[in-house]
C-alpha cells in the first residue's frame, strides 16, 4: 500500500501468458484544495441541498429517487440501479493488454484520469518489472481494457519511475471533433518579420517543465482573500488584460523581442547582489501568504 493509501482497484495485468497482481492508486487528488461551503447570505447559515419535484415542488427523499431516460417531453423510462448493475459487463479483474503501441500514437486529448500501478505482492514483482522494463526499452505503451468503477474502460499503460502509470481513456464518441471546434477560424499564415520575431521570442523563453515551479494561483488567491477578510484588509483589483490589436501587433512583437534580448541573460552586479540579499531578508519578515496563510489563519 504505497504511502499508506488504499488501492482504488486490485486485480491482475496480463501480457501474453504472463500475469501478475497489481493495485491501482489515484495519481491526482483534490483533497488539498480549499473547500468553500454554500451559505445563506441573509442568515449566515449553511445551505442544505434538496431534490425537488419539477412539477409539484415537493422535496423528493433519496429512497424515492430513480434514474430515467427521457423518450419524449416529460415522458421517462425508469431505470433501477439494480437493472443497470445487471447489464454492466462482468469483470474478471484483469487488465489484459491488447496491443503495444508507440508512445506518440495516442493524442492526449483522449486522456482522462491517471492512476499508479504497482505489484500487490512479492510473487508478482518479477513479472511486473519484466513488463515495465521491456516497455521502457522498446519505447512503447500498452492498451488494455477492463471494468473499472462499474464501467468498461480503455486504459493506456506506460512505464513511470519504478512502476507503471495507467491512464483511463475517453471513448471516441466522448471527444469533440477538433475540426468542428476550429471551423470558424479563418485560414491565416504569418510570414516575414512577424514570424521571425515570434520565433525569436519563443527561442529566448525555452525551458523545461517542472510542475513544482507552478503555483495554483486560484488556491493562493482564495487563501489570501480569506486571510485578508479575517484581518479586515482589502485586496487590490486586478488589471484588465489588453488584447494586442492587428494594427499594433508588429510593434508589440518588436518591443517584446527587444525586451527578451535585453533580459535574456541579466548581469549580476554587486548592486544586484545586495538588492537580492535585501529582498531575502525582507521576505523573512513578511507575513505568510497563499495556502500557508490560510492554514495559519484557520
Automatic annotation (TrEMBL):
Homodimer. Interacts with LigD. Residues 258-298 are annotated as: Disordered. Residues 57-187 form the Ku domain. Keywords: DNA damage, DNA recombination, DNA repair, DNA-binding. It comes from the Bacteria. Belongs to the prokaryotic Ku family. This is Non-homologous end joining protein Ku.
Amino acid at each position: 500500500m504505497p504511502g499508506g493509501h488504499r488501492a482504488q482497484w486490485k486485480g491482475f495485468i496480463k501480457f501474453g501468458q504472463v500475469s501478475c497482481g497489481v493495485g491501482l492508486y489515484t495519481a491526482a487528488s483534490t483533497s488539498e484544495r480549499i473547500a468553500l461551503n454554500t451559505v445563506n447570505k441573509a442568515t449566515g447559515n449553511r445551505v442544505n441541498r434538496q431534490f425537488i419535484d419539477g412539477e409539484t415542488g415537493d422535496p423528493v427523499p433519496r429512497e424515492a429517487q430513480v434514474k430515467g431516460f427521457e423518450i419524449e417531453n416529460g415522458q421517462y423510462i425508469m431505470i433501477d440501479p439494480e437493472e443497470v448493475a445487471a447489464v454492466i459487463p462482468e469483470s474478471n479483474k484483469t487488465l489484459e493488454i491488447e496491443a503495444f503501441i508507440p508512445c506518440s500514437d495516442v493524442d492526449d486529448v483522449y486522456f482522462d484520469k491517471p492512476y499508479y500501478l504497482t505489484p500487490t505482492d512479492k510473487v508478482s514483482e518479477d513479472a511486473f518489472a519484466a513488463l515495465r522494463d521491456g516497455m521502457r526499452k522498446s519505447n512503447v505503451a500498452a492498451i488494455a481494457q477492463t471494468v473499472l468503477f462499474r464501467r468498461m474502460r480503455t486504459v493506456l499503460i506506460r512505464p513511470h519511475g519504478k512502476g507503471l502509470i495507467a491512464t483511463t481513456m475517453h471513448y471516441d464518441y466522448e471527444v469533440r471533433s477538433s475540426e468542428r471546434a476550429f471551423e470558424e477560424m479563418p485560414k491565416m499564415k504569418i510570414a516575414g518579420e512577424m514570424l521571425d520575431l515570434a520565433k525569436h521570442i519563443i527561442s529566448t523563453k525555452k525551458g523545461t517543465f517542472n510542475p513544482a515551479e507552478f503555483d495554483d494561483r486560484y488556491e493562493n488567491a482564495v487563501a489570501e482573500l480569506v486571510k485578508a477578510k479575517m484581518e479586515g484588509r482589502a485586496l487590490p483589483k486586478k488589471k484588465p488584460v489588453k488584447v494586442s490589436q492587428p494594427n499594433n501587433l508588429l510593434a508589440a512583437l518588436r518591443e517584446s523581442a527587444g525586451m527578451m534580448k535585453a533580459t535574456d541573460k541579466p548581469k549580476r552586479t554587486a548592486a544586484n547582489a545586495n538588492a537580492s540579499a535585501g529582498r531575502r531578508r525582507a521576505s523573512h519578515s513578511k507575513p505568510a501568504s497563499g495556502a500557508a496563510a490560510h492554514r495559519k489563519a484557520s
